Amino acid sequence: MTTSSSSYVFGPYKIDPREVFYTTPFSYAMVNLRPLLPAHVLVCPKRLVPRFTDLTADETSDLWLTAQKVGSRLETFHNATSLTLAIQDGPQAGQTVPHVHIHIMPRKGGDFEKNDEIYDALDEKEKELKQKLDLDKDRVDRSIEEMANEASQYRSLLDQ
Amino acid sequence: MTTSSSSYVFGPYKIDPREVFYTTPFSYAMVNLRPLLPAHVLVCPKRLVPRFTDLTADETSDLWLTAQKVGSRLETFHNATSLTLAIQDGPQAGQTVPHVHIHIMPRKGGDFEKNDEIYDALDEKEKELKQKLDLDKDRVDRSIEEMANEASQYRSLLDQ
């Protein structure tokens, strides 16, 4: 699959197509600037809508079928045994970028001391993500090459 | 809408139809034995499958369209401003009852000191839920009448 070179929006931000590893008519999946765990990725609708209820039925179905496929492939690829799938839908639920996005994280025994500690970390990461996207010059902690390389691996994975 | 009197399965457990407030061809929504917040409800596929990837495309779409509708109605009804939507998909992600279920929680400012503390609480609740379902005699903390009454309110809400 060739990822279109058109740009992807994520709230007010423009996402480099090299970070995107899977696209469908309504959705796209991208690697993370600072993944919390290996293969912590995001699945978003292509259309910029802040809230889950704003999606049409076609967009909703497509988004979750995409998440299902992406999650399943990444879980196997990373020898994980479970998945965390979550939408922080609105600011009072911890959403910082006002564009619907599903967090997908392959999980294994012992990855966090308590299974649920991942959510504290997730919330911190969501704040950091926003700060990093806001301050483009600070985007040095993970290079585009590293992200493009990971995305390229997942691209072949999703092609199978 | 009249909820069918047929029983609903939730993993190894049988759910009283009075706790169920919305059904579709593939999914059902039920109130919680011990809600973490007002209107903390669960949306499940009717078919007993442990993992999200086990669902067919029709089941996946139906499940999330149901969650979208239920979440939106309950958020408005409870004057909330956001929603937490999460699947703990597999034991290493905190799932205790081996039957796919979406946690839906309407959120408002200040409902938890930190937005993400809800997840610690959610994990504890999931463990308690399992214990309670395992020990039927202990199901006294919330009566079936109270649950049926809440379900009945939501039933009219979803009918609109």
TrEMBL record, chains A, B:
Its cofactor is Mn(2+). Its EC number is 3.6.1.29. The active site is at 101 (tele-amp-histidine intermediate). Residues 7-114 form the HIT domain. It catalyses: P(1),P(3)-bis(5'-adenosyl) triphosphate + H2O = AMP + ADP + 2 H(+). InterPro entries: Bis(5'-adenosyl)-TPase_reg, FHIT, Histidine_triad_CS, HIT-like, HIT-like_sf. It is an enzyme of class 3 (hydrolase). One of its GO terms (biological process) is translation reinitiation. Signal peptide: none annotated. Keywords: Coiled coil, Hydrolase, Nucleotide-binding. GO terms for molecular function: adenosine 5'-monophosphoramidase activity; adenylylsulfatase activity; adenylylsulfate-ammonia adenylyltransferase activity; bis(5'-adenosyl)-triphosphatase activity; nucleotide binding. PROSITE patterns: HIT_1, HIT_2. The record marks 119 as: Important for induction of apoptosis. It holds the Pfam family HIT. Substrate binds at residues 32, 88, 94-97, 103. Residues 115-150 form a coiled coil. A motif (Histidine triad motif) lies at residues 99-103. PANTHER family: BIS(5'-ADENOSYL)-TRIPHOSPHATASE (PTHR46243:SF1). This is Bis(5'-adenosyl)-triphosphatase. It comes from Arabis alpina (Alpine rock-cress).
